[in-house]
Design a protein that fits this description.
Layout (H helix, E strand, L loop, with lengths): L11 H20 L1 H6 L7 H23 L7 H25 L5 H8 L2 H13 L5 H17 L1 H6 L4 H29 L4 H23 L9 H29 L1 H4 L2 H16 L6 H18 L25
Helix pairs in contact: 1-11, 1-13, 3-4, 3-10, 3-11, 4-9, 4-10, 5-9, 5-13, 6-9, 7-13, 7-14, 13-14
Length: about 325
């Protein structure tokens, strides 16, 4: 793979192991977040919950950067990227997803958001001129077919009511906004902006954006003091926001949005596995076949040979261009 200007090509074996770890962390952490989001819905307005989530996450990230002595000052151009990243990826996408899940089940929401995979492929072509290889296309088709099979009972029971169409529409729009945020992050990393500090500033701007929308809508900034809401908020702040986004966006910068987007297809598989392990879900033929299709597509997309010209493999010490949460 041709290295980007100013970046050092990583050791292939070490890069593959790091990519695999980032992929695993992202998939598991975000695969559990759908359940946490369910506990956020109801009394507190979705935009207020988004403001709490990313406001607290940004404070923790700034504190971590300060303790580590990492650079926090950036120019106006960089802050333009941070503002765009925050508005798209840390505000609008979650407001849309929270609203969507008020009308439909988490299963339908997960299926809708899995279309991010296709949106990333198309947007990477539009914004970066990168072409997805045949294996990426085939793996993507297998993944989405697997998701449809996995949730076939939910799809059969879902009615084409106005509420369902509204919920799916919100989630599809959220997936598109998330894909645009992915493009912003990939562009920022190509310009040498570190992931950790980008997330800190981006989440701050995202929280401010959520506060503005909440004020415009006249929402009450109440904090629901129930165990379910507080524990789910803590999970979303620490794991889904700080660790999940840190892992995913670094992975995106390393392997490209086309491949990294496949994590969205893996989330429902994690959710089903958790339901089987802790809720006594019965394994049906549809679940087994759907899960197998998703895993087969995952192998096609991620194993060496699946071309993605939009990504650049970088060494972990490449001028601190890309920073991970663990540093």
């Amino acid at each position: 793979m041709t290295p980007c200007a100013g970046w050092t090509v990583a050791n292939p074996a070490g890069a593959t192991m790091l990519n695999g770890l980032l992929y695993l962390v992202t998939t598991v952490v975000w695969g559990c977040s759908w359940l946490a989001i369910e506990y956020q819905l109801g009394t507190v307005a979705p935009v207020v919950s988004v403001g709490y989530r990313f406001g607290l996450a940004s404070l923790l990230l700034f504190a971590w950067c300060a303790l580590r002595g990492q650079r926090l000052g950036f120019g106006a151009r960089a802050h333009g990227r941070f503002l765009l990243l925050g508005g798209l990826l840390f505000c609008l996408v979650y407001q849309l997803s929270y609203h969507g899940q008020q009308f439909i089940t988490s299963a339908l929401a997960a299926i809708s958001f899995s279309t991010l995979l296709w949106m990333n492929i198309l947007n990477a072509r539009l914004f970066f001129g990168s072409r997805a290889g045949k294996r990426v296309w085939c793996g993507s088709a297998l993944g989405l077919a697997g998701i449809a099979m996995l949730f076939a009972p939910d799809l059969r029971q879902a009615s084409l009511s106005g509420a369902t169409i509204t919920g799916v529409g919100f989630c599809l729009l959220g997936a598109f906004v998330a894909s645009l945020g992915n493009m912003v992050s990939q562009k920022a990393q190509r310009e040498g902006l570190p992931v950790l500090q980008s997330n800190a500033w981006g989440m701050l701007y995202g929280s401010a954006c959520a506060a503005f929308i909440a004020g415009w809508q006249g929402e009450d900034w109440r904090l629901l003091m129930t165990p379910g809401y507080l524990w789910s908020l803590a999970y979303l702040v620490v794991f889904a926001s700080i660790i999940g986004f840190g892992s995913y966006l670094k992975l995106l910068g390393r392997i490209g949005a086309q491949k990294a987007g496949y994590t969205m297809v893996m989330f429902p598989v994690v959710a089903v596995a958790l339901s089987y392990g802790f809720e006594g879900m019965t394994l049906t033929r549809e679940i087994l076949v759907g899960g197998s299709l998703v895993l087969a597509g995952n192998l096609l997309v991620l194993l060496p040979g699946a071309r993605d010209t939009s990504s650049c493999e970088v060494a972990p010490d490449a001028g601190n261009s890309v920073a991970s949460v663990s540093r």
